[in-house]
Model the fold of this input.
Amino acid sequence: MDYDFAILILYYKKDIYESKTLNSLLASLKPETNCQIVLWNNGPKEFSDQATHSVNEASFDIKIVETLNNIKLSSVYNRFSSMVRASVFVYLDDDSVVGENYLVSLLKTDSSSIGVPFIKSYNKIEAPKVNGKVIGEDYKVLKDDDFILSIGSGLAVGCKKLEAIKSKFGDIFDEKFYLYGIDTTFFYRIKQLNFNKDIQLLSYIEHSLSRLETEEKAVTDFRKKERCYDVGLQWRYYFPLAKSLYYILRLAYQTISSKDVQKLKYTSLAFFTGKHYRERV
Done:
């Protein structure tokens, strides 16, 4: 392998050094770490020439990729996973804070393991969840029948595990999903492959969760639509048909009192068409 670690930082609407992730990573990463850092700008504007020149002078091996048309995140993750030869692949958003403890725990991962960090937001652990409940940092070992679920930022996956997932499903991250659901369906996949014994819990990272933030109505409406499509597609592809139809009927019944017709509309469209609304025909 060319590198021990390949580290992706996925950018959107930020210049290079506006990322908490990059700044905290460069402050904590040991110079001798054998890694490549990929800064992936998903738009809408190019990185500034000044920032690009500055980062190219850094002591680490840093590569810049720009897809300014905001391609689906699952596609970014899959392309990154095949563009570098590394033992372990690390996936980070641009608004996470990684510290020395996380990086030390990351060094314990290898080509056959999956590292899942604890996620803190406003000093409270929000993830991962095991069997639907948030676990604490004293949690030790997953049982074979446990289901672990977390967000994608900070996830570290060994190359052998990536190969096994791709061999089983055709891709590593499910490209039917654009923004939400990519991390959830990844955990469904590793559960199907019985990889619990290979999961390591990593030290925490700090991460901003959109569901805990106050945002403008246009943004919350956008996120609502995206989450509805995420749910509908999960029901279509990752749940038994009888259970999915029950969920659809229950949502329809709930709409009578909630009057949230949009939620029913978007979720049903995703389920019955089997496609995200941004998917080209």
Summary: The chain has a mean pLDDT of 95. The radius of gyration is 19 Å. The first helix runs from residue 20 to 28.
